[in-house]
Specification:
375 residues, Outer membrane lipoprotein wza fold like, 3 domains, 23% helix
Length: 375
């Protein structure tokens, strides 16, 4: 009776072998499907069997930002806080009650009757003007510190005896950039030379939180936006871009990862251990094809490829790792963020799965029979 049950189950299993559990299609199924008419999602198969069939390595996208204009580091603009010192000779204009006056946001203070210097701190308003005692409202935006000092001196002509004026910055918004996100010291960074690069400005702000390979720098300038991965800049330092006053730099944590599916030794999402990763390294990280159910001749990389017109086309790259030359090609095959590495199921694993299924079904019956026979 037991033998007939086993035989019947085997015949049923053999007839329905195609319905046995599987972790995905076989390599032959993937290759044959690409040749069929697909109304929902058509994809192209690329046989990677030579260096000419390797996909192009991902490169750094050229910056689309407006080139920075060379400007003086002491250029005055709205929001800047200025320290103004006025030196006078002889009878001083700013002596007496004017010393402590606060006019138009200016704070005056300082010297006794014998002193010849008057110190005033003033903020440039949103329209680019400042207001000073006796000078009135002066245009500060677009002037350098030296030019503004000369303008103040001229405004006091005939009121003070040979006044001398010095202008310096207490706070400089015009000649600074804003850094935020995954940076150690976020906030406003004043540019000392106006020749600082992106990497240099990040270093001046204390560096990044985490690893550079996982960080994307977003630079916003004059209504434009540009993104670049910091790991790429470390590999290509000559492509580092110069920051400009007014830039907004945001560091975003965006690790690169690929997914492993099918019949590998493990199915999971794996982050790139470094900025650039080859297919050979990805296969090693995934554990390779499972020797029991995987097909070493059916390694596939599923990827969306961006066309010149901006559209995306699904492409499947196939490598037959049963051929020794494929191991050299896999070292030159560059993985990209979001790739799916698929290991096809071996066709020969279906009979083994049937045997495993029969063993699981009838092992309890055999165990009961042995127990009852021993009674």
């Amino acid at each position: 009776m037991l033998r007939s049950c086993v035989l019947s189950a085997a015949l049923i299993g053999a007839a329905g072998c195609s319905t046995l559990p599987a972790s995905g299609p076989t390599g032959r199924a993937i290759l044959s499907q690409s040749a069929k008419d697909q109304s929902k999602l058509a994809f192209n198969i690329v046989e990677v069997d030579s260096a000419a069939t390797l996909p192009p390595a991902p490169g750094i996208v050229a910056s689309n930002l407006v080139a920075p204009v060379a400007t003086p580091t002491d250029l005055v603009g709205p929001g800047d806080v200025l320290n103004i010192v006025i030196y006078e000779a002889g009878v001083t204009l700013f002596s007496g009650s004017s010393k402590a006056a606060v006019l138009g946001g200016a704070r005056a203070g300082g010297s006794d009757a014998a002193a010849s210097a008057e110190r005033i701190q003033v903020r440039v308003d949103d329209s680019g003007f400042i207001s000073l005692p006796f000078s009135g409202r002066l245009r500060a935006e677009g002037q350098t510190a030296r030019q503004l000092a000369l303008l103040i001196r001229l405004s006091l002509r005939g009121l003070s005896q040979d006044p001398q004026v010095l202008v310096s910055f207490e706070e400089s918004l015009t000649n600074s950039i804003l850094l935020g996100g995954e940076v150690v010291k976020p906030g406003r960074l004043v540019l000392d030379t106006n020749r600082e690069t992106l990497n240099e400005s990040i270093a001046l702000a204390g560096g990044v939180k985490g690893e550079a390979k996982d960080i994307v720098a977003r630079v916003q300038r004059a209504g434009q936006r540009y993104e670049i991965r910091l790991g790429d800049l470390l590999n290509e330092p000559d492509l580092d871009l110069q920051v400009a006053p007014g830039d907004r730099v945001t560091l975003i944590s965006r690790p690169q990862a690929f997914s492993v599916l099918g019949a590998p030794n493990k199915s999971e999402e794996i982050e790139f251990p470094k900025t650039r990763l080859s297919l050979a390294q990805a296969v090693a990280l995934s554990g390779g094809a499972n020797p029991n159910v995987g097909d070493a001749g059916a390694f596939f990389v599923f990827r969306y490829v961006t066309q010149r017109d901006g559209s995306e086309v699904p492409v499947v790259y196939h490598l037959n790792m049963m051929k020794p030359g494929a191991y050299f090609l896999s070292q030159r095959f560059a993985m990209r963020d979001g790739d799916v590495l698929y290991v096809g199921n071996a066709r020969s694993n279906q009979p083994s799965k049937l045997i495993q299924l029969l063993s699981q079904l009838f092992a309890p019956i055999v165990t009961v029979r042995n127990v009852t026979a021993g009674l």
